[in-house]
């Protein structure tokens, strides 16, 4: 049975809003995990500001563990945890939990990469002036790496868009769910094309905004 796109548009708009909501909420919570975790990886590493070998190894192992699990497997594996946290294992709210666990460690690595790009000479000069380790982190490392951090958070946001589409396999809602329910299972090619185009548009908008914001920070 052919879908009437004129009456189907409200569902497409609703699915788009669900995708944006999933990505937005997941990005906020994943950043709250990834940012401090990334900072911790930098400051506790060998020759770091707060060098702590055992702690670095533990944090490094945790990040590597979660990053090694494909999202679709993580999505299914933590269904009991998802149900415990949000009370259900399907829908937009349920999809946020695996999205956060998937993106948090990824953001931590991106933050680590950005902070390690800061010139050691700048850090050493600030340290010579008597600044504490945390003053160096918040007044030197993060401000100096801010442009790179914005670009990397943009990469994480785009990754979340793709992951949110995969959440449709377990009824996670959003454009991915719509594409699978109608475009794949019911062979509605028009729905599949529209959902793909909308995902492309969302990615392009996120990348454009991230690039412009990073460029503006760099100029300052």
Automatic annotation (TrEMBL):
S-adenosyl-L-methionine keyword on record: no
Membrane topology: Multi-pass membrane protein
GO BP: D-methionine transmembrane transport
Subcellular location: Cell membrane
Segments forming domain ABC transmembrane type-1: 16-210
Top-rank taxon: Bacteria
InterPro entries: AA_ABC_Transporter_Permease, MetI-like, MetI-like_sf
Keyword field: Cell membrane, Membrane, Transmembrane, Transmembrane helix, Transport
GO cellular component: plasma membrane
Stored PROSITE patterns: ABC_TM1
Principal subcellular localisation of the protein: membrane
Pfam families noted in UniProt: BPD_transp_1
Transmembrane region(s): 20-43, 55-78, 84-108, 149-171, 191-210
Family, similarity comment: Belongs to the binding-protein-dependent transport system permease family. CysTW subfamily.
Protein name, per record: Methionine ABC transporter permease
Source species: Pontibacillus marinus BH030004 = DSM 16465
